[in-house]
Amino acid sequence: MRSTRIAATLWAIATMTLVACSSKFGTFATAPNAHDYDPSSIVRPATSVIPTNVARTTGLVYVSGDLCNCVEIFRKSDGVLIGALTNGVAQAEGLFVDAALNLYVANQSAGNVLVFHEGQTTAFRVLDDPWGWVNDVAVDSDGTTYVANEADFPDNPGDVSVYAPGKTERSAVITDPRFYDLYAVDLDSSHHVYISYFDPNYVSHIDEIIDGRIVDLGLQTRGWGFFDFVLDGNNDIVAQSGSQNHHGISVFPPGHRWPSKRLGIWGTGYMALDASETHIFAVDQGGVAGVWEFSYPNGRLLKTLTGPFGAGNNPIGVAVSPPAKL
Question: How far apart are CA 109 and CA 111, in angstroms?
């Protein structure tokens, strides 16, 4: 599961920094397990039928639970938990809502992506993706779907599966010798794909794909690396980074290697902007075990979605409906 492996990754990077290792990745063998729980012991929320058109009236916030095999559904207007999706959900990670308000669920343990119509509890489409650990998903305005696959240890580096509109089998793959652990994928207003990943030396990158070329943007972080990121309507890259003593969100204007501002937000989960791009939702796995809602871009705390999270059920992914536009 991604949150366990993020913790292991950060711990391994710290260990490699401080201790001489006989093997490049030898520290993973002793990395502590952040959530040493039996998934079968986790109480799953009941699957709930959500009335359609709720997203267009009050807004919805979807939050994937770490080990509950569920996606919990909050009313955006007041942060009240109103339902959950569990059918077919297996260690859900990144989430995405498209312009038609369909929810995409990166279903890590099942090796697929589930697609739900708003208000429905059974997926109407399943994108098959057995090529690694499914971490994140993003959908272009024409329906092309991009799925970030984390490395399948020890032999298979990460890649991005590409699905043509309406297709359930991948039609192309984006790969590069520098890719190892891929964490997140998103698109900008020009429909360029962006990817965050660690290379085989565990150096963190965010790359942009321009006309088939993979371009390292050279973004700099005070932490050990980037995890999730989103792009706003100005094509600013809003990136979550983490380290042992510092987590936060950095805002990088186009063409800038250093952030123009930082939001001091704890957590190593996913993020999402709302349709107005005046609110940003950031998963916090380390503090409240919930989702912070901040005003954007000034970072003022508005409220916290806590739900039935806690030990063994930390939140990880988040998406807002209606979503920010490409």
Answer: 6
Q: Cα(190)–Cα(101) distance, rounded to whole angstroms?
A: 21
Full-model pTM: 0.84
* CATH of 2-321 given 2.40.50.1070, 3.40.50.300, 3.40.1190.20, 2.130.10.10: 2.130.10.10
Tens of pLDDT along the chain (326 residues) come to 444 454 444 434 333 332 222 222 222 222 222 223 333 433 445 555 555 666 667 899 999 987 788 899 999 999 988 889 999 999 999 999 999 999 999 999 899 999 999 989 999 999 999 888 899 999 999 999 999 998 765 567 889 999 999 999 999 999 999 998 899 999 999 999 999 999 888 889 999 999 889 999 999 876 667 889 999 999 999 998 765 455 678 899 999 999 888 876 655 679 999 999 999 999 887 666 788 899 999 888 898 887 666 555 678 999 999 999 86
Exposed, middle or buried: residue 221 (CB in 10 Å: 0-12, 13-18, 19+)?
buried
